[in-house]
Amino acid sequence: MITVIVDRDKATRNIIAIYMSGHSDFGEEGNDIICAGASTLCYTAANALNDICGYDDEKVLRVTDEGMESVNVRITVPDEGDEDTRNRAQVIMRTIEVGLMNLAMSVNEEGKNFIEIIHSKED
Questions:
Q1: The domain containing residue 104 runs over which residues?
Q2: Given a cut of 90, is residue 57 above it in pLDDT?
Q3: What is the DSSP string of 31-63?
């Protein structure tokens, strides 16, 4: 199963990072459409944070590939830029969060979850 953690700042509730790990085991290795969809959303977020907000790729995206067994992805919003840049970053992160939640709702079946979304806990 793919696990996605959406981490928010406790004070502002802004998304500060999205972590994704695991493998859905929906299809054959290299042909898993759920993993492809989730990966596409994560890479889209990282590319948009770079292209639209001007954040450095090395500060935004970290991928640890453990082969077809599991991939770990971290997308982080740097704590930099003016208010407009930070607001654009939140729109990007929220859009990706909604995309991942919609993916989970459309593919999970009764008794079989391929993707799980976990939101950081509020104090």
A1: 8-114
A2: no
A3: --HHHHHHHHHHHHHHHHHHHTT---HHHHEEE
